[in-house]
Amino acid sequence: MSNPSILILAGDGIGPEVMAEVRKITDWFGERRGLRFDVSEDLVGGAAYDVHGVPLADATMKKAQAVDAVLLGAVGGPQYDDLDFAVKPERGLLRLRKEMDLFANLRPAQCFDALADFSSLKREVVAGLDIMIVRELTSGVYFGEPRGIFEEKGERVGINTQRYTEGEIERVARAAFELARKRQGRVCSMEKANVMESGILWREVVQAVHDADYPDIALSHMYADNGAMQLVRQPRQFDVIVTDNLFGDLLSDVAAMLTGSLGMLPSASLGAPMENGRPRALYEPVHGSAPDIAGQGKANPCACILSFAMALRYSFNEGTEADRLERAVEKVLADGVRTPDLMQAGDRAPVSTSEMGDAVIRALDAGL
Ligand code: IPM
Ligand code: MG
User: Fold this and answer.
1) What separation in Å is there between the alpha carbon of 318 and the centre of ligand 2?
2) Which ligand has the nearest atom to the CA of 285?
3) CA of 219 to the centre of ligand 2 (A)
4) I want to staple 355 with a disulfide (CB 3.0 to 4.6 A). Which of 195, 199, 351, 360 is the partner?
5) What pLDDT, on a 0 to 100 scale, did the predictor assign at position 348?
6) Cα dihedral angle (245, 182, 309, 227), rounded to 10 degrees?
7) What is the DSSP string of 331-346?
8) Per-residue confidence (pLDDT) for residue 345, from 0 to 100
9) Which atom of ligand 1 is nearest to the CA of 93?
10) What is the C-alpha to C-alpha distance for residues 56 and 76, in angstroms, rounded to an integer?
């Protein structure tokens, strides 16, 4: 049998730097754990635009459909701000999500004990925080039709459409319930059923899926605005949150900041199973391309490394190895190794992106 395949799309800004550290980690698993991957690389975002005039070439899209998992760094940068909407770097990412039908976006917000003081909230509110946000990723207002800027009665009108089918709600609800079964068994669904018909349908369908197949899970519903408030008031009340594309975009940024360390947060975007039983999957750090620090060795590679840990868990069924990698990252933090984004008064000098990668490798070696 051939090795599982990974396509790396490092993208723009700090993407290539943090991905270089992930390559060290994939090599380590090959050499030390016998987990060999066939790794190929291609362009996405501004890097693809510079070469192909589009943020994702058709040939790259085809490769992404053919591999077992895609690892993405980050897309975007100020030099692309004035580009036509259709060829902006972000469109490359949105095309991948849509055409791979990656409907379930898993965004864990976990507070590492060594970093609890970085949160904008008090340590006692965030210590031990472990939330999983499941964001619907392929529908809703991001993709709904009609959309556009039109002329109407002598002025322009901008239109986007929030649209969800029962099937789209059902499949992401199932993903959330399945995850909850492996966690604390609680799901909170968020919408705006008080003002949006799509929210009324969302609530009904999530409840129906629960009643039919997941009675063992404790399900609650919340309006998304209240959800945002509860997230900063008492975040530990949540286990799994399931919500739509736009609310999920906002709520996951809020949850990310609770942990205080955007440079630490991974994500997985999962679709339906392929022929080999693995889900279509793309893994990426939650942070962006950070053009202000790109190319200076200042970026924290941990979010990207932890995204690979999610790939081990969700694509390659290697939960034990994923735990191993997550423990190594936690150990490095507990030892006080810090990239510049994690510095506090009194800390020793920060390490570079590649020194952080090396420290994780040493922790992996020490854990064998
Ligand atoms: C995210 C980002 C994207 C989104 C952008 C870059 C298109 O904010 O992944 O959360 O809005 O989905
Ligand atoms: Mg976002």
Assistant:
1) 28
2) 1
3) 25
4) 351
5) 86
6) 30
7) HHHHTT---GGG--TT
8) 80
9) 7
10) 13
Alpha-carbon gap, residue 294 to 14, rounded angstroms? 5
For ligand 1, atom 5: residue with the closest CA: 90
pLDDT at 107: 97
Tokens of 159: 């239109």
Q: What is the pTM of this model?
A: 0.95
Q: Using a 6 Å cutoff on CB, does residue 246 contact ligand 1?
A: no
Q: What is the mean pLDDT of each run of 10 residues along the chain (368 residues)?
A: 94 98 98 97 98 98 98 97 96 97 97 90 94 97 97 98 98 98 97 98 98 98 98 97 97 89 93 95 96 97 98 97 97 95 87 98 97
Question: What three-state secondary structure class fits 317?
Answer: coil
Q: Is 249 in the pocket of ligand 1 (CB under 6 A)?
A: yes
Q: In sequence order, what are the beta bridge partners of 42?
A: 9
Strand ranges, E, within 85-201: 104-110, 130-136, 144-152, 155-161, 186-191
181 alpha carbon – ligand 1 mean position (Å): 28
Query: From CA 325, how far away is CA 52, in angstroms rounded?
Result: 36
How crowded is residue 53: how many other Cβ atoms within 10 Å of its Cβ?
A: 9
CA 284 to ligand 1: nearest atom:
9
Domain spans of the chain, in order of start: 1-109+263-368, 130-258
Homologous superfamily (CATH) of 130-258 is Isopropylmalate Dehydrogenase (3.40.718.10)
- Supply the pLDDT for residue 72: 98
The domain defined by 1-109+263-368 carries CATH number 3.40.50.920: no
| Both tokens assigned to 183 | 């966690």
Check pocket membership of 90 for ligand 1, CB cut-off 6 A: yes
Cα 207 to the center of its chain, rounded Å: 26
For residue 281, the surrounding DSSP H or E stretch is: strand 279-285
Q: Among 88, 93, 141, which residue has the most ligand 1 atoms within 8 Å of its CB, making it the best to mutate? A: 93
